[in-house]
Design brief:
241 residues, binds heme C
C-alpha cells in the first residue's frame, strides 16, 4: 500500500505542475486530426482549436483544413462558437469567418453541435499529427470545460445573418429533422432538464449519434443499451438514410 502511494506521487506532482503551467496559457492553439470529421473523399480533416476564455463569454476558435495538414494556413476555414455564460442555461452562437468578416456557413453546425462546443476526440493514430504531452493535457482541459458547461441552447437570433435567414441554414427545418431521440438511457443525460441534462437529441443529429454510438463513446460507461433500445436506435438512424 505504502509502496503504491510512493509510486503515484511523482506522477501526481508532474501532472499538477503541468496543469499549473497550462493554466497560464489555456489559450494556446492545439492542432489535431479529427477522429469523427472526414472530407467527402473520407480523407482526414485537421483542426487547430483555440479558446479565449472570459467571465461573460468563452470564444472557441477553430481553423480547419479539408486539404491536408500542409495546406496554406491562410486558406484554412475559420469557424467560431461563442458561449454566452450570462444566460440560464448558457447559450451559444455559431459563425463562419473570413478575413475577420462573418460569412455564410459552410455546413449546418447544429447537426453535429447539438449542445454548443463538442468534446475534442483526436485520431491518436494519425500519421500526420504527433501529440505532445502538453497537447494531450490541453485537450483534456478543453474537454473538461466543455463538459462542465452543461446544457447550452442555440440562440435563435443566430438563424439570421445580415437581417435575412441564412442561405446555408444553421439547423434544418421540418418535423422529421426535429424528431426527438426517445431512448430511455440516452434521455438520462440528453434531456432538457435535470442534473446531467444537455438537451434532447434531434433527428438531424443522426450522423453524430451514429458515429458516437458505433465507436462506443455513447452511452458513456457504465451505461448500456438493452436489446429493445439497440433496436430503437438502429431504427431511428436508418429512418434518416
Ligand atoms: C460533421 C460534424 C460537424 C459539423 C457539421 C460542424 N462541426 Fe464543429 N466540430 C465537430 C467535432 C466532432 C468537433 C470536435 C473536434 C473533433 O473531435 O473533431 C468540432 C469542433 C468545433 C470547434 C472547436 C470547439 C469544440 O466544439 O470543440 C468549433 C469552434 C466548431 N467546431 C465550430 C463549428 C461551426 C461554426 C460549424 C458550422 C459552420 C461546425 N463546427 C460544424 C463536428 C462538426
Ligand atoms: C451519463 C450521461 C450520458 C448518457 C447516458 C449519454 N450521453 Fe451522450 N453525451 C454526454 C456528455 C457529457 C456529452 C458531451 C461530452 C462528450 O462528447 O463526451 C455527450 C455527447 C453526445 C453527443 C454529441 C452532442 C453533444 O451533446 O455534445 C451525442 C450525439 C450523444 N452524446 C449521443 C448519445 C446517445 C445516442 C446516447 C444513448 C445511446 C447517449 N449519448 C447517452 C452524456 C451522456
Amino acid at each position: 500500500m505504502k509502496m503504491s502511494v510512493l509510486m503515484i506521487l511523482p506522477i501526481l506532482l508532474v501532472s499538477l505542475s503541468l496543469g499549473a503551467a497550462l493554466f497560464e496559457d489555456l489559450s494556446t492553439p492545439v492542432v489535431m486530426e479529427s477522429f469523427e470529421s472526414k472530407t467527402k473523399d473520407k480523407d482526414p480533416v485537421f483542426n487547430e482549436i483555440t479558446i479565449q476564455p472570459g467571465d461573460k463569454k468563452d470564444i472557441w476558435l477553430m481553423a480547419q483544413s479539408h486539404n491536408g495538414i500542409h495546406y496554406s494556413k491562410s486558406k484554412w476555414d475559420q469557424i467560431k462558437i461563442v458561449v454566452d455564460k450570462t444566460t440560464e442555461p448558457y447559450s451559444a452562437t455559431y459563425h463562419q469567418v473570413k478575413n475577420g468578416k462573418e460569412i455564410e456557413l459552410r455546413a449546418a453546425c447544429y447537426i453535429c453541435h447539438a449542445n454548443g462546443p463538442r468534446a475534442i476526440r483526436p485520431n491518436y493514430e494519425s500519421s500526420s499529427v504527433k501529440y505532445s504531452l502538453k497537447d494531450k493535457a490541453l485537450i483534456g482541459m478543453m474537454n473538461l470545460r466543455i463538459k462542465t458547461y452543461g446544457r447550452i441552447k442555440m440562440k435563435k437570433s443566430n438563424l439570421i445573418l445580415d437581417g435575412r435567414p441564412r442561405q446555408r441554414p444553421l439547423a434544418y427545418d421540418g418535423p422529421k429533422n426535429w424528431q426527438e431521440l426517445n431512448i430511455p438511457t440516452c434521455l438520462k443525460c440528453h434531456n432538457d432538464s435535470g442534473f446531467l441534462s444537455r438537451g434532447i437529441l434531434k433527428g438531424q443529429q443522426y450522423g453524430t449519434i451514429e458515429h458516437l454510438t458505433k465507436t462506443g463513446a455513447m452511452p458513456p460507461w457504465p451505461y448500456k443499451l438493452d436489446e429493445e433500445e439497440k433496436k430503437q436506435l438502429a431504427e431511428f438512424i436508418s429512418s434518416f438514410k
